[in-house]
Design goal:
alpha/beta, TIM Barrel, two-stranded antiparallel sheet, 18% strand
Amino acid sequence: MTEISWFGALCDDDYEQLGVVDAKLQSNWHHCSDIVHAVHESGFDNILLPSGYDMGIDTLAFAAAISPNISNMKLLAAVRCGEVWVPQLARQLATINQILNGRLSINIISSEMPGESLDGPQRYARTIETMTALRTLMSGKRLDMDGQFLSLHLDPPRICRDSPAFPGFYFGGLSPEARDAAAAGADVYLMWPDTEDALVDIMTDVKARATAYGRSVRFGYRVHVVVRDTEDEARDAAAHLISAVDPVTGDAIRSRSLDSNSVGVRRQAELRETAGSDGCVEPYLWTGIGKARSGCGAAIVGTPSQVVEKIQRYESMGIDAFIFSGYPHKEEAQRFADLVLPHLNHGPL
């Protein structure tokens, strides 16, 4: 069984054409809740609610507000390490999980906070401490920790004691420190687009690191998608998506992200540089979308059967959690649900 998730555009990341700001698609309660409702009604298993400081709206406030309207689907709420005092964060997350009847999952983000300067080893040391503390408190256990970033000696809040249900951690990062953090504390290791051979190498490495900790992890994949009835229509739609982006605009968009210089972002740039003349680095994996956005920088582009074939190849490699996105998010989610979702054996993790 594979978990199929969509992306909720809480961080001003919704467009008809990348780089062309449309006030109707900017993040606010009404627009983002429309996306979540459409994804919920279309039969997806989960939706990622991303987190950013400067752009968009607050993730946990939005998650709490939308949760009473979600009856079947999970919510994957992103939290940034260092943004909220961990015991209070545990209390907030436990409350949202209670509203959702246990259908919350957590995407741990390790990037720097605005105005902060931490190198990779420090950031991931904080990430491991945060995951350990959250897992302990949300499991209803006492926390005694004297770490580099967290020094806490306290019992869990009552909501965690009364409902000790721990939501799984989804976590991504390509550097050795990030992989080790995932091995030490994550439940699902999320990967950005890469060649199939590279993905196998990454998964093999993370599995070995997790084994050294006496743990195991599942694997997830975050990728865009452009699906149309014919291959020409899919390629035309992809080309239209980035047709308004010039190099200066693209550079400005990518530089806005707090993790714009990370190992993972650099790898996305390498894929674009090594792609063929059609922008594809391997069949159906198109890197052109990365010209106008930071982070996840490639899309599966093709017909419904081609997209399903690519997803099934990933499944055969051991990936069982997917987070897809497309532009505009609401319309593309509905298109994916109509053309692709019925052909996938899926359900929540």
